[in-house]
Amino acid sequence: MKRILLVPDEPFYNYVDIAVMDFPKGEEEPPRQRCKVTADFGPYDVKQLKMRGLDLDGAMEYYRQHLYDVVRFHISQDWECVGGMDKVMDIIEKHIRTYYQ
Fold it and tell me: What is each CA distance from 18 to 6, 34, 42, 46, in whole angstroms?
């Protein structure tokens, strides 16, 4: 299982880019960037989740699973996060929470 570090860029009002970093020479060495993925959380994106019947907790689980699936597709294997997931999810929650109030 690949160990991955997620590093979010400065978020915009409707999305955040996330650098996906791995450790080809071990975690003692600096990580390298494998790819970047985008998490969209604009009004239209959240409206689609609401139409599916997802509350805030359901939407957060959707984003977590979607992020896992997209990264898995790009690196072609299962992975575990060694850092950055909480920061990414905090950014997403901060932006979508207003749509659920």
Answer: 6, 11, 16, 19
- Summarised one tens digit per residue, pLDDT across range 44-79 is 999 999 999 999 999 999 999 999 999 999 989 999
Q: Which two tokens stand for residue 96?
A: 């979508």
Strands (E), 1-101: 2-8, 15-22, 32-40, 79-83
* Token couple for 29: 């060495």
Token pair 């994106």 is at which residue? 45
Long-range contacts of 42-48 (CB under 8 A, 24+ apart): 42/13, 42/14, 42/15, 43/14, 43/99, 45/14, 46/96, 46/99, 46/100, 47/99
Q: What is the pTM of this model?
A: 0.91
Segment 24-33 long-range contacts (CB within 8 Å, at least 24 positions apart): 27/3, 27/82, 31/5
Torsion (CA) 69, 79, 33, 46 in degrees, nearest 10: 30
